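Chapter review. Work through the record for Transport permease protein before attempting the end-of-chapter questions.
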Amino acid sequence: MGVNTVRERVSSSNKLERIWLLAKIEYKLRYYENRLGLLWALIKPITDVLIFYVVFKTILKTDIPAFASYLFIGLILWNFFLESTSGTIQILYTKKYLYEYSNMNKMEIYISTLLSSSIGLFFNMIMFIFFYNFIESSTAGLGVHNLWIIPLFINLFILSLALSLILSSIYIFAKDITQIWQVFSIALFYLSPIFYRSELFQTALPAFDYLNPIAGIIINARRVMMQGVQLDFSLFLFDFGYALLFLLGGLLLLNKLGSKAAEKL
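C-alpha cells for Transport permease protein:
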C-alpha cells in the first residue's frame, strides 16, 4: 500500500470523525439552554401528535385506523425536513467561522448539521416503532419490509440537503428567502398527507403525490412501517429523482455563489 493511499485513508477517516463530532455538538447545543435539555427532542413530536390527534380524531372524527401512529410517523419525517431546511438557510453566515478559520469545507458543515437532525429523527423513529408495534391494538407487526425505511431516509436526507444548499445560497443575495420559505413550507405542510388519508389526498389532488416529493416519502414510509407492504417503487423513483436533481442544482449554486458568501454576508 502506497504512502499516498495511507494518507488519503487517514484524511478520509479524520474528515468523517470531524463531521460526526460536529453533528453531536450541534445536537446537544440545540437543546442546551432548555430546562428539559435533550428530552425536549423527544417531547416535541409527542406534543405535536397530541394536538393534531385532538383536533382531527376527537373533534373532526377522522376514521383512520391507528391514527396516533399515522400522525406520529408523518410528523417526525416532516419535522426533520422542516428543521433541516429552515435551520440551514443562514448557515453560511452563522457557521462562517468554520469554513473561514478551519480546514472544514462548506459541504462538511451542511452534512454535519443534517446529521444532528438525524440523531433526533433516529430516537423518534425508535419511539414510533415501539408505540405502533407494542401499544397500538392492531398492527401489521415488525417485518423485513420495515428495512425499506432506510432508503426512504436516504431519499429524505438528500432532498433536505439539496434544498438546504439552494436556500442558503439564495440567502447570500436575497435575505427575503427566509420569509418566502416559511410561507411555502406552511403550504407544503397542508398539501402533504400528514393528518388525512393518502387515498383522500390522491383523489383530491391527482398526481400531486408525484409532484410533492415529501408527500411521496411519507406515503411510502407508512406503507413499509404500518401497512406491511412494499414501496410504491414508481413514487420512490420519482422522489429520488427529484432529490438528485435538486442536489445537482444546489451544488451548482453553492459552487457559483458560495465563494462570495464571506464578503456578502
